[in-house]
Titin
Amino acid sequence: MPLIDGGSRITNYIVEKRESTRKAYSTITTKCPKCSLRIPNLAEGCEYYFRVLAENEFGIGEPAETAEPIRATEAPSPPESLNIMDITRNTVSLAWPKPEHDGGSKITGYVIEAQKKGSTQWTHITTVKNLECVVKNLTENEEYTFQVMAVNSAGRSDPRESRPVVVKEQMMLPEFDLRGIYQKTIIARAGDNIKVEIPVLGRPRPTITWKKEDQLLKQTQRVNFENTATATILTINQCTRNDSEDAAYEFRVIARNAAGAVSHPSEPSDAITCRDEIEAPRIMVDAKFKDTLILKAGEVFRLEADVAGRPPPTMAWTKEGKELEDTAKLEIKIADFSTVLINKDSTRRDGGAYTLTASNPGGFAKHIFNVKVLDRPGPPEGPLNVSEVTSEKCVLSWLPPLDDGGASIDHYVVEKRETSRLAWTSVATEVPVTKLKVTKLLKGNEYIFRVMAVNKYGVGEALESEPVLAVNPYVVPDPPKTPEVTAINKDSMVVCWGHPDSDGGSPITNYIIERRDRAGLRWVKCNKRIVTDLRYKVSGLTEGHEYEYRIKAENAAGVSEPSPSSQFYKACDTVFKPGPPGNPRVLDTTKSSITIAWNKPIYDGGSEITGYMVETALPDEDEWKIVTPPAGLKATSFTITNLKENQEYKIRIYAMNSEGIGEPALVPGTPKAEERMLPPEIELDAELRKVVTLRGRPAPEVKWTREHGESLDKATIESTSSYTLLTVGNVNRFDSGKYILTIENSSGSKSAFVIVRVLDTPGAPQNLKIKEVTKSSVTLTWEPPLIDGGSKIKNYVVEKREATRKAYSTVMANCHKTSWKVDNLQEGCNYYFRVLAENEYGIGLPVETSESVKASERPLPPGKITLLDVTRNSVSLSWEKPEHDGGSRILGYIVEMQSKGSDRWATCATVKATEATITGLIQGEEYSFRVSAQNEKGISDPRQLSVPVIAKDLVIPPAFKLLFTTFSVLAGEDLKVDVPFVGRPKPTVEWFKDNVPLKQTTRKTNMEVEKLLEKHEYKFRICAVNKAGVGEHADVPGTIIVEEKLEAPDLDL
């Protein structure tokens, strides 16, 4: 956007362009609302300037113009192919054609890349400007794939890959190229030098030997041969007759006239070999004719060949078994030993195999030239099948053309025409497969269809179908078989019929059932829904009326003629005795009774079941006893009483209707009258608010418990032999959990549980821990509460209080994690923390840290370490306090040492002061030392002595360091001279005055000299003595003058 909008909002932009060769701009758009625009329809390769002008309500502003012209170009298309031309054991020769499109900009080069098999990485090889490249330094027997990309000013093209190739030496049978030697015969005159060079082909390089009359040619100075990388050269100097197979002769002519004059002889002719030889024909062609010759339609192709043989062979060109003749389009030239075939304005039909045949008395030779003309494709392979024909549609299918014109088939074009018309109409223009469903045909019309293949060179020739009539291939079905009625009652009948003899060529989709009352004339349709079965129940009949039936079949072509009518059937009930009751079974037994049950009979005989009868008999007897009331039972269960204990019985049941008693149903086995032991069972109702139903024999014992053994003092339990009820009043969150019911009798036990969820605020979070403490923050972690109050935990509330206070303050009221970092704490202060969970019912119970936490951290390392002293078995160190104690008092220091060559640090001293003496060292050993500070939060990082220390006694000659050079002392005062000194071992210091020893101190010596004379001058000197010897004398600088002690005047009034 412009920096200055003119005081009004920019409404739009105007974009203009001009070619670099012109001066005038043309407008692209005047209403561009955005700050970007794509400009189409530029001339490829042309250079343009562009400018943009902003517009507001006051008009159009100044333009912004591109500084340099911009070329309308893009990356080129990739080369059409990447060909492998040659392979050796470490090189591959590549070649490729130019891209079809250079993107509007000149191709500046080609990038070659290679990829090893099994790798996904492409390796850059080189960039070349020509259309070929030799890739060197490849690994033998490794498989490579190569790719080439064309490059122009707009960038690189897409890559074109080669076929995978294994880098190894190629194998080729040895072969001589004798085309340069006429009929394999060398003719020379005696004394001439003969040099024959014969190209040799073959990989690996062949071994070449020369023979004469089946004997190896012996090399001499006159006759020798030389082998090069591509040829062998035979040299014969001053050839003789013995060098030839047959004798060679020369001829000359001498003219004579009538006067008898004789001219000088003519020049001799060339040497002529005298022999009669027949040599079979041979055909030699250029290497390019060994592969298929590919060209585009309209181009000219030439087929050339050289022929050898004696006598000169006869040559003939043929194609597809027919000899070719010289025409205006096809020109054939034949010489003695060569021939050329020239075809002009080539079309696809000119492609194929051209055979050149050369023959003479010695035999014949053939060579086939394969020519492929890139053109529009030929017609698809027929026939064009038309199937699944109906009055509205059909399906076409065909095969791809035998001749694709040298390019892949892109799609097919399908057309149709009515036989009564000449014009073709399009059905589909881009059919990707060789099958198509054609719709929207007109019923009864006759159509011809045609299909044409399309490749990148155009639309090919058409394949036409035979005329096809758009009619359905099926007719209405035959009538069904005569219907019959299989079941009758007072208001319905079941009608059955047979399938038609023929379905008319289309599946039966429906049957139409019609009935006619004997008292009426009209046929009435019975079914409203589709019927595909061969039976149908006709309902809604009038009791006592007689009906006849007929059936019609329906398929895709229509409805058939009706079937023959059935006989008349009367609508009335047919009553029979009922069938046996279903599923007779024993429900229960006691020592004096058996309870049985059954189902209604499947067949009631056409009359309502009026009751049931039960009979019993002993197992070994056939005398049955009725145990039910005379009127029978209405229910489908019965308890047989007054039975003997442990006695087995046979039991059977009958059903009764208006026709009488039906067939019996026998209860399986022989049930025994005995007490049945039933394991306990529990039945929980769906709402879990009613009583719990219990079953079992004997009556089970009931026991309620909780999962973790919690007390049930609040619960009220009411139990009987068949139910139990547990009631808990005034529940809270602690009443949530699993309640387990266990019932047990002598037959076993059974357990069930109920999970109770009390909706309340949550319990306290679990496992509150201090994870990390620093001087200003504490990190807390915890786990969700065991009891969530029956609602999902929404968040946690984190609180803190100082140890000196009683009130908590909120740190975070909406924490969604189970951890929180409490920061901004006062360094060195003690705090308590607590966490509370919150759900939709409120904030729950807190969990609190059991002990206070001090906001502190480990101290910083100690300061600079100083080596105070070293002996043969000890080291004295001192150090500075840490810059920061971490908010907590330094409790002490840990001194560690490490022997040379060891990785382990050993603690050698723990002290509270800032210095330590480490003893027990080994004389001559080298040691490293480090010191760490410790407070209640831990141990700091160590500070190491900068240099290692060797445990040994130091030997330093004694020396003095005098602080002053002149001393003045008042008469009568004491003179005290402090003289610092050094020396190892510790020197023995002696003061002498007039060879009298004086008093000595620890590190400094002082001397008190008494009885000095006033106004006298004195000089002193000092020497120190230790095991190393006597040190040099040190003169006390200057002269000491004894003066009278002066006192301030004292006035006594």
Summary: The two ends are 106 Å apart (CA to CA). The first strand starts at residue 12 and ends at 19.
